[in-house]
Amino acid sequence: MKAIASLGSMPNYLLSNNPAVKSIKDLTEKDRIAVPAAGVGFQSRTLQIETAKLYGDQDFKRFDKISVSLPHPDASAALIAGGSEITTHFSSPPFQYQALEHSNVHKVLSSYDVLGGQATFNVLYTTQKFHDENPKTYKAFYRALSEAANIINRDKNAAAETYIRVEKSRLPLPLVQKLLTIQKSASRFSLSVLAYMPKNSMSLAY
Predict the structure, then answer these.
(1) Which PANTHER family has this protein been placed in (predicted)?
(2) For residues 122 and 7, is the Cβ–Cβ distance under 8 A?
């Protein structure tokens, strides 16, 4: 396998509708943490890294037992509505920003806090065989990826319109535009020589 590029940096927020939860130290057996894949995946691994910092490496799975697997849309809806077992959600854009528009939801921590700053969220990869046997396809794909990154950075309105069209999203355009503006300072989309290399992601390998 060979890496093609990182897909930029963006923070993931641990959110809660429990006023008593100001840090993960405040989580109890009564809380339930929604993550896309309990025990594995970016959100769970990030939580485990923070847990190890506070409780020691031997106890890094401390909160796995109160974690539940739930897709981001369902987890966000449960957190916002309240009244369910879900009191905490390790979220992701754009869902975290939608949730934070509601006064009963607050941010506990950011993945950037845990990983030491802007951190690569997704990485594209392929096989050496595919790269060597499909040079035109690979080149066209990389050019399209570079163009997309440039559009996102240069024209937020066009990026928002494209997102809604491609994803067939029901989100209103003004909201998506607002989310991109919010993310501008926290997220980075670039294929430059330095920016395309993964950042602050080594801890996820352990």
Answers:
(1) ABC TRANSPORTER SUBSTRATE-BINDING PROTEIN, ALIPHATIC SULFONATES-BINDING PROTEIN-RELATED
(2) yes
